[in-house]
Design brief:
624 residues; alpha+beta; six-stranded mixed β-sheet; 29 strands
């Protein structure tokens, strides 16, 4: 009988990050000679099986002579924040690799100092603790810049003979904030519980780089604007559109400028979840959601935050990284604010097959080859559980109560991801037109407001963008010249009657209040008053994502501020994604309010509903 033993063990990423699970890949040989991964073998201490995998995680003890930068643990410390020492903040957090590093992350130190002087967390002082807090607070109030607090920490070098402390006994380990700056070591051994000497064969040992702190979420605030139309406060909602970059597309070859650890899905999913929760949108339209990640991660994590989820996957899987994978569109909405009435799924491939069926036989093959691109759209009709109180002018107050109680407020939310190949502009335009004609049918059956969100892979001023916001395509549009199948002719058929407008392009149409945040948002708009970019890589900068809305029913009363290019790019990374931004796109969020249309008036109080408590989850409990 062959012995049960380990054949190999490796880390998927050598760079650990606080709060991001590490799960080594371990290959074992069973007694029958077959090979299995650790996922198929029980763990020692957690299974009744005879043979199992024994795992141990340890961390190095950082000594005073071996300090590293708190933000960049792969760099030696050169600068220390004096006030951290006075406030008795965890010493590891006081070290930085350079003055620039300390200045860039100064806001973290202000939080640390404030928490300590207010008596929250950290090490307790000795006698005179109250006086210490008063002195620290006085020092903090007198600060003008981080330069007031820095002194050289000396030339620290690594030392031999590090002390190790065991921190885990399972294969999956989630580094904590206390591990930042420490090296982790994973050891695994085949284990036979029936043997007097249960450890079998060689012990595999793997060392990591020093643990990095969890990345800070991009800081983006909502900018409130004053609409040019009368609106109802009650029932307003926020809606988000975000291409989250499916893991199957996040290859090192595609994003060579991104640090390898920042491309790993365990790292990106933690970042994305923190970002999504920070926006706290009532409705979220996500694109490029990998089907397995929807089921195993997004749906359960966002359900904990109070969201209901629906999903539409693309029509064909891709073979990537030794497995098949597929992505799609996912829509989430707060169950306290909305209820699902009906769901429609749009497969552009079905429309392509129907279109090709009417073509001559000699053209069908070419048509299908060009049009079958697996893109989809997900349409949800939602009922607002906190509807606006409106009635027709002239309805009596007594009668209005009955009308108000019986009136339902529905809204249609479309979420799509249009084809990306820039050489197939005809396919993009055809897909957008197909989606809009489907939405027209829904609008005809139920006169309700709409929001159309997604990654349209079309820049402002393109034919697809013009069709969305203007309802027509100019006959001299350059895209009409790229029509080998004749599916766009005549141009006059490329139209729709939906009163759509782009939220970011119109959010500043209202009264100018002189708010600096509004002025800053205005400076970050470009062509057609759309954002200067929603997609930023080494080779491309432009806007591809939009939130469209029915201007007869809704109007934007706020928008999430847009990042400046300098905030997204860094010295080390030339585009998205990177350590802080975990997609190659940026999220768009707008606040929508219902318009008081002609012939309508308020019915009852217009007090806005109380804001729900923001539920913050503790992400990532060892997902596989």
């Amino acid at each position: 009988m062959n012995p049960f033993n380990i054949l190999s063990a490796r880390l998927t990423s050598e760079q650990p990050v606080s709060s991001v699970p590490i799960e080594p890949y371990v290959l074992l040989r069973k007694v029958d000679g077959s090979t299995v991964t650790a996922d198929e073998v029980g763990e020692e201490g957690y299974t009744d099986a005879r043979f199992s995998l024994k795992s141990r995680w340890s961390k190095s003890v950082v000594t005073g002579k071996d300090q590293v930068c708190w933000v960049h643990p792969d760099c030696d410390a050169a600068i220390q924040c004096i006030l951290c020492l006075r406030c008795k903040v965890d010493p590891q957090r006081s070290y930085h690799c350079s003055a620039e590093c300390l200045k860039e992350h100064w806001h973290f130190h202000l939080d640390f100092h404030t928490q300590q002087t207010n008596g929250h967390g950290g090490h307790s002082g000795h006698g005179g603790h109250g006086l210490h807090k008063q002195n620290s607070a006085a020092t903090l109030n007198g600060l003008r810049s981080p330069g007031d607090l820095m002194h050289l920490a000396g030339g620290y070098n690594s030392v031999n003979g590090e002390t190790w402390i065991e921190v885990g006994n399972q294969r999956c380990y989630v580094p904590t904030q206390d591990d930042v700056g420490c090296v982790l070591r994973y050891e695994c051994t085949a284990y036979d519980s029936a043997s007097a000497y249960p450890d079998i064969g060689k012990t595999f040992s793997i060392m990591t780089a020093r643990v990095r702190p969890a990345p800070a979420c991009p800081t983006r605030n909502m900018v409130q604007t004053r609409p040019c139309k009368p609106v109802v406060k009650r029932g307003r909602f926020t809606i988000l559109s975000y291409n989250v970059l499916a893991d199957l597309y996040a290859s090192p070859e595609q994003f060579q400028y991104c640090p390898p650890f920042a491309l790993q899905w365990p790292y990106r999913r933690a970042n994305l979840l923190r970002e999504l929760l920070s926006y706290n949108a009532d409705i979220m339209c996500l694109q490029e959601v990998q089907s397995t990640h929807f089921t195993d991660f997004f749906a359960p994590e966002l359900a904990r935050a109070g969201y209901t989820a629906i999903f539409k996957r693309k029509t064909n899987e891709m073979y990537t990284r030794d497995t098949y994978a597929i992505d799609g569109c996912a829509t989430f909405f707060k169950k306290k604010k909305f209820a699902l009435v009906k769901k429609y799924e749009v497969e552009f491939n079905k429309a392509a097959l129907s279109l090709a069926e009417a073509m001559p036989n000699e053209q069908k093959t070419a048509a299908l080859s060009r049009l079958l691109k697996d893109n989809v759209a997900l349409i949800a009709v939602l009922e607002a559980l906190v509807p606006p109180r409106l009635r027709k002018v002239g309805e009596g107050q007594a009668g209005a109560t009955g009308q108000e109680q019986s009136r339902r407020q529905l809204i249609c939310i479309a979420n799509t991801h249009i084809h990306s190949n820039p050489e197939l502009s005809d396919v993009k335009l055809w897909q957008v037109h197909t989606l809009l004609k489907g939405l027209e049918k829904i609008s005809a059956s139920a006169d309700i407001p709409m929001a159309v969100c997604g990654d349209f892979n079309s820049t402002p001023g393109s034919a697809a963008h013009s069709l969305l916001v203007n309802g027509v395509v100019a006959p001299d549009a350059i895209e009409l010249q790229n029509d080998p199948l004749g599916i766009l002719a005549p141009a006059s058929k490329l139209c729709h009657k939906l009163p759509l407008a782009s939220a970011y392009a119109t959010v500043l149409d209202g009264e100018d209040t002189g708010d600096p945040a509004v002025a800053r948002l205005r400076r970050r708009l470009g062509e057609k008053n759309e954002p200067k970019f929603t997609n930023l890589t080494r080779d491309f900068k432009g806007t591809l994502d939009y939130i469209m809305y029915s201007r007869d029913y809704l109007t934007p009363t706020g928008a999430l501020e847009l990042p400046d290019e300098s905030e997204v790019r860094s010295r080390k990374t030339t585009g998205l994604p990177n350590e802080s931004w975990s997609s190659d796109h940026v999220a768009l969020v707008t606040e929508m309010s219902y318009v008081i249309a002609d012939g309508m008036e308020l019915a009852g109080d217009d007090e806005d509903e109380e804001e729900e408590e923001h539920v913050v989850t503790t992400p990532l409990r060892g997902y596989r």
